[in-house]
Known about the structure:
By secondary structure, this protein is an alpha+beta fold. The chain folds into two domains: about 35 residues; about 50 residues, Roll (SH3 type barrels), CATH 2.30.30. It is about 40% helix and about 25% strand. A five-stranded antiparallel β-sheet has the order 4-3-2-1-5, with helices on one face. A hairpin with a 2-residue loop joins strand 3 and strand 4. The protein is rod-shaped. The mean pLDDT is about 85.
Amino acid sequence: xxxxxxxxxxxxxxxxxxxxxxxxxxxxxxxxxxxxxxxxxxxxxxxxxxxxxxxxxxxxxxxxxxxxxxxxxxxxxxxxxxxxxxxxxxxxxxxxxxxxxxxxx
Length: 105
């Protein structure tokens, strides 16, 4: 028959598991850094470089999927031409890419 004190002693946590807990926490943070934060930071820097390098005449694609040509670049906005005599003023942050040129056959 097991007494109450013996049962309480058997269920007591062992000391020494603390190092493995901290190693797992550090490993998870390192994995998140290398697979999530670092690539996102690189992508954000490249996008900022692309947006700051826009000039009149560049072809762009907006976040809404509109293909346009940049007519005028201002500090935070762009004036883009969508069709002949159709211009829109958009925020620079809404430009997501430059169209990929189609390959010649």
